[in-house]
Amino acid sequence: MSPEQTPTPDTADRTDAMDAGPRPSRLTGAAALAGLEGAALVVGGIYMLVMGLTGTPDDRGQAVTGGVTLAVLALLPLLAARGLLLRRSWSRGPAVVTQIMALPVAYSLLQADSVAIPGGIALAAVSVTALVLLLHPTTTRALGIRGPGAAQDGKRS
Question: How far apart are CA 20 and CA 34, in angstroms?
Answer without folding.
Answer: 23
